[in-house]
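Note to self: keep these together.
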Amino acid sequence: MILKGKKGIVFGALDNQSIAWKVAERCVEEGAQIVLTNAPVAMRMGEINKLAEQCKAPVIPADATSLEDLENLIQKSMEHFGGKVDFVLHSIGMSVNVRKGKPYMELNYDWMQKTFDVSAISFHKTMQTLWKLDGINDWGSIVGLTYIAAQRVFPDYSEMAESKALLESFARSFGYHLGTAKNVRVNTISQSPTMTTAGQGIKGFQEFFDYADKMSPLGNAPAEACADYCIALFSDLTRFVTMQNLFHDGGFSTMGMNPALVQ
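Structure:
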């Protein structure tokens, strides 16, 4: 029960394959109260109401690119909890270019801006809204999910790579301000390729998943293990970890070559 008494907001649970879904379940198991949120279009596609019933948590729809929606979300969450939140998970990512199969050399720039807004700028907007509304307690924790394509080239990941690089930069920059003012920590978790609904929408994902699994000494980290890592970062056990990009990938990020791939 390492989150007993804590209250948080979980963005991005779509279905039971989602990392955010696993995080929500683990938060409640560890004693936290949560609010679930997702964009209205994602809520229509997913099964978030089933999770809400299971976790005894309200669902407050919010388009994370809308400051008005984010203000409503945080204000209503504080009303529900009777106070500020202690943790936030940002598990949001979407590329129209990837969905529509646009090659990287022929990207639609209007779609690219949408990708950046949804996948990265929404992280800054969430933190800025928490700052403006004084919505997070001292020693709170904010976590965003990212991927190693922010540092290395994975061609089919397209402009989501730049989105993740921007997300990680926002974590460091806002982490300074939130840490200095309120001892709030901000980190990103760079997760293994994971069999989520969104992940499987990327071209060649199965081959990519298998490659990473063979390259990693421990194999790919599953969604359930990522949820455990998030719980650790939300807890008081990691109070002095901030402004870090933390690799949760079975060792993939440190490997140069694995004989298993040659074999």
